[in-house]
Write a structure and sequence with these properties.
Elements (H helix, E strand, L loop, with lengths): L6 E11 L5 H12 L3 E7 L3 E9 H13 L5 E10 L8 E3 L4
Parallel strand pairs: 2-5
Antiparallel strand pairs: 1-3, 1-4, 2-3
């Protein structure tokens, strides 16, 4: 049984009006406010932001909730989450170059 303190990895895609509205900066700021999260966020295509997040399950889920809401100027139409195997490859949470 999973504990909320278990380390997990979530791969997240948010679609909608998520570019040109400070979305990546919002996700990075929120991740740092929560603390203890590592990974990245980046733009993909013209209507999608992608993120990979590792950390305690409860904290990862809080960040996913923040992604679902987005910053004030955004509109999130769809969020897809895939749970993956933790790799521990990240040292911090940051913004990556767009793909």
């Amino acid at each position: 049984m999973n504990s909320t303190n278990d380390i997990v990895r979530a791969h997240v895609w948010a679609q909608g009006r998520v570019q040109g509205v400070g979305f990546r900066a919002h996700v990075e700021y929120f991740a740092r406010q929560i603390g203890g999260l590592t990974g990245w966020v980046r733009n993909v295509g013209y209507d999608t932001v992608e993120a990979v997040i590792e950390g305690e399950q409860e904290k990862v889920e809080r960040l996913i909730e923040g992604i679902e809401i987005g910053p004030r100027a955004s509109r999130v139409d769809n969020v897809r989450v895939e749970w993956e195997t933790v790799t521990g490859e990240f040292k911090m949470f940051g913004v990556n170059r767009s793909r």
